[in-house]
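Task: fold both queries, return tokens.
Query 1:
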Amino acid sequence: MNLFICRSLFVSLVVYTSMVFSTFDPIMAQENAYPLQMSEGKKSHRPAVPGVNGLVTAGHPLASIAGLRILMAGGNAIDASVAVLATLNVVRPQMSGAGGNGFLTYFDKNSGDVHSLTAAGAAPKALVANERIAEELNKGIYAGVVPGLLGGWVSMLKEHGTMSLSEVLMPALEYAENGHPIEGSVVQAIESQQDLFRSYPSSAQTFLPGNKVPEVGELFKMPALASTFRKLIEAEQTAAETGRSRVEALDAAFDRFYKGDIAEEFTRFYEEEGGLFTKEDFEEYTPIWGNPLHIKYRGYDIYSSPPTSRGGMEVLMQMKLLERFDVEALGANNHTLTHLMIEAIQVAKSDIYQYVADPTQFFVPSEGMLSPDYLSLRSQMISEVESMTYPTAGKPEGYDQTSKEFWNAGKNLQLGSNREVSHAGSTTSFSVMDKEGNIVACTPTHGGSFGTGIVVGNTGITFNNGTRIGSTSPYSEHVNYARGGQVPILNNSPVVVLKDGEFVLALGTPGGETIGQTQFQVLVNVLDLGMSVQDAIEAPRFSLFAAPNFYKAGAEITVRIEDRISVDHFEGLQELGHNIELAPSYSLGSIQAILKNTSLGTFMAGADPRRAAYAVGW
């Protein structure tokens, strides 16, 4: 069906959405230190959304609808995902964009295979991190990595898509050119970065129209980004008109971005502003398709992202560390189960921060870290009756092949120049299912809010600030210290779950350090506790934070838990020795998930009320 015909038919079709109950406040803090437990009469604030021909659940309603438009026009899950990604660039510019990075996990229904895409760029080769203070590598002209996502969009279409780039960019292009009513969280993010934006005319023109912070609901446009999108479409269409194949036409768009006049504009801008990127940095980038990490868990096959994601390894290790315990018997809202999961997170993170790095430059003992025997041994560290001190890393098979710049985390580590502080991330996530049963889970990110905070010349694009602490280590002797030409570590780790070769669950979340932790909890809610997709998403969550960070054995661990738990739950965790703090209700993470009812064979999507995320189906 023609895309434009599909759009005209769209208004006459019934579209199920999770916009019901949209007046619910997702950041509802409680004053009482011991709040009442969530009412049994209302476990969730949004309905799960059914789909027969397709489902999209994303971090903004317009992004979800953009993906649905493509599905209704005959596109597959990959085509729809590129439309979602491009639209997120416009409606969630602080969290994702063509200049960002990200990971994708894809289940190909026809082959039964699961694939992983790493769309993450490296720091400029000229970077010498010790010459810069922490804030210079967090925001501004010296921060940033090569844009990964735009190349990922094109590679997705080449490898597994069916549509042209021009077709899937159309929803985003319309919002960029014609505008959309800007949402409150974007306005807040712009307000928080306005001083930096005013330092660069290109940033001010993009995010401060009329030289002011936009009002909530104001029609917000991104004409410079629209112009870049049109250049990519022009490159593709010109190549097609000269008889080149669909793949060659997509390559033409890729080359214009990374080797043509768009890359030249990137280079010009950075040279004039005294930055570090050169044309060679952009020319050498390529997205990477590979095998995801995989475990067996109670009869399920769980897949997630390989390094340079630390989150994929983390969530899979956490599941295996928990597997020896009878989780179903413990049940939901049980402080002992929460305790066991807290301990599993600590054990996993001690290994993650020891061994995960850019696999193109360092050996990562992934197989040893996921070995059932190794994880069974590490699981024995977990006691049911007391909490542990944050441990040192273990010694999985292959640990002795790692670089000398890996070290067994200790207490006497030397910082790089003024680089102890960690910076929060800004990420989003979505999941898509098409009528053929192909599944995408994807988690893109700008790193911190708006990435570097600098719109690069006339492109409308900001780069991911992957050089910041959080994506890099503060310790100059560690492999993950910021280095020129090296891909920083991300926590993005979208998950796909199969059973007997059939799809069961797809999910992903933003949340920086908490991504793997949040996904772990929702996986347990569904696979062990049998929750529905929306109940699993909305159940109270916790997250671990480490002082000074998770690199150091013996770090002080604080557990923040959403304040809808019971008094008994709170006090039970304290009695086990945990340092517990209450977090506002509905404040940790933002899961977007699709779940199959295996007994009925039907599919439902859930969207997290913690952010302005929505699910749609048809």
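Query 1 returned. Query 2:
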Amino acid sequence: MYRTNTCGELRLADKGRKVTLAGWVQKSRKLGGMTFIDLRDRYGITQLVVESDAAPELVQAASSLGREYVIQARGEVVERSSKNMKMPTGEIEIRLESINVLNKSVTPPFTIEEESDGGEDLRARYRYLDLRRPPLQRALALRHRLAQEVRSYLDGQGFMEIETPYLIKSTPEGARDFVVPSRMNPGTFYALPQSPQTFKQLLMVAGYDRYFQIVRCFRDEDLRADRQPEFTQIDCEMSFVEQEDVLNVFEGMMRQMFHNALGVDIPDPLPRMKWYDAMDRYGSDKPDVRFGMEITEITDLVKGHGFGVFDEARYVGAIAVEGCAGYTRKQLDELTEWVKRPQVGAKGLVYIRLNSDGSVKSSVDKFYSAETLREVASRCGAHDGDLVLVLCGEKRKAQTMLGVLRIEMGNRLGLRDPHVFAPLWVVDFPLLEWSEEDGRFYAMHHPFTAPKPEHEQWFYSDRKEDLERVCANAYDFVLNGTELGGGSIRIHDAQMQSRMFEVLGISKEDAEYKFGFIINAFKYGAPPHGGLAFGFDRVCALFGGQETIRDYIAFPKNNQGRDVMIDSPSRIDDTQMKELWLESTFRQ
């Protein structure tokens, strides 16, 4: 056998054992007449030692080792004279009797350490080397543990893991599809699934009342830290359930994952917040509730004082930033420029500084008395020593801008500890979003989301105002300002589904072409059903205390959707183009 033990398991209790280890040379160093070698595998690092009186061939073999050589080492476990208690194996070392070089290595392009000297692009090009580093090994180990917890919990709840197709029909109502040309059906294309949504609903029609899969999904959209063109969902669906049933089951799943993987106990039950409350208080439908700084409307207090910006605004809101009255003019000017960035979209920023000596200073002093400014600050919950920041505009846009500013101030003040977890459910979303540009409604979630039962009379109304009042029977699981999962109770009635298509401006012909299979299926006794999907990559990253999901995916793409390690996407040759009936398109 190549090894009797891994490089992370031997302890002082193993003293005197003869063992064989195999792995990669982390580093080698000489000290006096002795040679010390750190041998690494994914389980840890063990120190090997070649003593000064060892056989000459062993000394020579140890001296010739380079970084990342793959070796097999045999020897005796002995107690270290100079212990390293920061390492699990730091009380022992292996006194070597033989070394067998299994494979040599050229010098790697960056250090394979806890902290590497390689830049992100370089490490992406040599991803197989980066994956040897402990941070990525821990990340993928956490991903594995969480996947096992998901399967264990859902199996215990009676769910069946069922695979659904990757080559499906394009239904471009959400993000852009990835499409795949069909060789056997010239001029036609498959699409890669953005989610298994329609298939899991068909499984409910088929009688498989509790379904799940940990499934790959695909979206051709612009990328960022928490997006990849291919990603993984924990996809689930249940029959004969109402919203409360779904929330209870998957709250239990998250509770088990937190407890077993992190040793963290989350509240039971989890808090719930309505969408409108989340927007009013946090300016986001995925609120980070680890800190306060809630948004307060002050429109009535600031109108009518001659300040045209506020007098003309439909909404004025503010946040109180604790302990920041000492912000200098330079810092406030920098913050004003920050909110003007396209990512925020504000035209300017008004501040009220409550100095510790009781005085009030504001950028709009000439329009407002100290008493009015203190009244504004008091409504926001601000005290002496605090800073009030004010934005205005159309209500939802202004609240969203304040929400972005709130998160930025939370980051600057260190209020968003990644190892503190504050999960909650956000419920009662609007069912529909009106687009002024297109003059039509869009589904806020997807076209299969059911309205709240108590809002069905508005759903069947022809008045735009009534349709805007309809709430979806939908819910999101939010953690630390990130939406980890979302779902809804689905439409299971063919008449209601047809009405939804009508509201969304999808003609009967178009609906039949895109969704005819599910419309027809609903005619054969579809049960009431609902479910949700968690973004598994995001779950892993947040459990690991990170914002980016890339370290939790073995082989991710970069911001341009490229895999620079294998140089993909790439062109295909003319023969393949012809087989796929793409020759003329390619030549254009």
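Both queries returned. Flag for query 2: The radius of gyration is 30 Å.
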